[in-house]
Request: fold
Amino acid sequence: MLELKKLTKQYKPGQPIFSGISREFSTKKIIGLIGPNGSGKTTFLRLLSVNSFPTSGEVLFDGLNIHQKPHEYLKNVGLVHDEESLPRHLTAKELLEWILRSRSVWDENSVNEIDQVLDKLALNDRDEPIGTYSTGMKKKTQIAAAFIVKPKVLILDEPLRGLDASTREIVFGLLNDEREKGTLILMSSHSMGSDPDFFDEIIEFPLRTE
Ligand SMILES: Nc1ncnc2c1ncn2[C@@H]1O[C@H](COP(=O)(O)OP(=O)(O)OP(=O)(O)O)[C@@H](O)[C@H]1O
Reply:
């Protein structure tokens, strides 16, 4: 489904962040990205979410070069960035509605689907703008926004940062359900390092060319 071909990212002369990485990721998997600070996890996920371009090599999604056809690819992608980037003046519910409408996938089930995901994340009773939310609530809003699009690929950069233990459990449940639907999930996390069984596969950073 996702295929990396000789992927290299180099910000400045000298040592690249990674070089010549070739691998394939299939559907219905949770892949964990583990490694120390500065080892390249965010760089890798930014490439896979077309927030950055490779120095060389390519990423194919079902044969489509994602950096050449970003709009076609991103229709299939749910994303949680480590940096918060949410509109402050919308409520969580308004944001999810806007996302579905802007992707032209709003239908008669959308109100229920939004209610369900916001209920699961205990955000449904908060009828105020996102600008007033706590850090954890903003992260939960990002997570809800990533799930609501019924993604084929979920890219999550530190989705658990700032979440309390019970909310983490809820997110694990959502991720397991999403995997069962056939979604490919790639997530970086410092805190999941102690629970490697959760992942179908772990990729250790820094990445080494095989
Ligand atoms: N836009 C950029 N320009 C130059 N260097 C960058 C840029 N973004 C990241 N880097 C460098 O690339 C290296 C990898 O950073 P990256 O953020 O990918 O690591 P990370 O594994 O996600 O770290 P953390 O666990 O701290 O989030 C670091 O040395 C960082 O300083």
Q: What stands out?
A: The longest helix spans residues 165-180. The pocket of adenosine-5'-triphosphate is lined by residues 11, 17, 35, 37-43, 205 (CB under 6 Å). The mean pLDDT is 93.
